[in-house]
Amino acid sequence: MDRTIDHVAFGGLELYELRAAANEVGLTPTYGGEHSTGTTHMAVVPFPDGSYLELIAPTLGTDAEEAGFWPSHLATGAGPTAWCIEVPDITASAKAAIDAGIPIDGPHAAARERPDGRLVEWDMCFEGSDQRLPFTLRDRTPRGYRVPKAAQNTSVRGLQTAVIATRDRQATADTFARRHHYPSPVEITGPFEQFAVLPGTPVALCEPGDGVLAERIDEVGEGPCAFLVGVTDLDRARQVLSLGAETQYSDRRMAWFDHELFDDRLGVVELP
Known about the structure:
By secondary structure, the protein is of the alpha+beta class.
């Protein structure tokens, strides 16, 4: 299994609010169009390494709870919603999940029409009964249709980490080991309590206790609660991005984007 993130979904009630927040912190979203369900639309923030942040919300006139993708996350403005890995064979990937004892939903054909009329098509498959595991994707049309070219930046590289909020860190680590052969968790100093990484993978785990993250799990279930973008140097990143106070991520530095929609949800971390 590829150990890089293709893209992550960050959901809310109003796409214009998500796009405005992204612009305010130095990210540049491009409107990507409406999904074929007609109930959601999205904008793309591409990164130089080819990964991207998907901002997603219900279309005008759609009740968020009726949205075709992640309705509970959109209805509650949960922010981090899901994360994706691209696979070479979506059917083989689905079979591997079944063989690992993971329930699947898919593969499904999906599409969206860009504002220029270009149709973007792909197949996708969801795994598990919640959002802890990544969903998988295989393009039908060229990937360049789906992902606009990113402006080159001297410090920003791309998506590095999906932080998964879970009631049972070891049980979730065991699920990743069974499905994706990820290694055992290693505790580090991080942005949340009871924080651990799965070394060499894009996954970090946090067990929330009785705080805000516990309330989040009660509301939308276990799954990603934060996403981290890799930068080569935090000080240089601050020249182009609006970032909050510096904190520790193991022996590296990190910071959250300085906006209420992104605080404790979307941040940057220095690459090792």
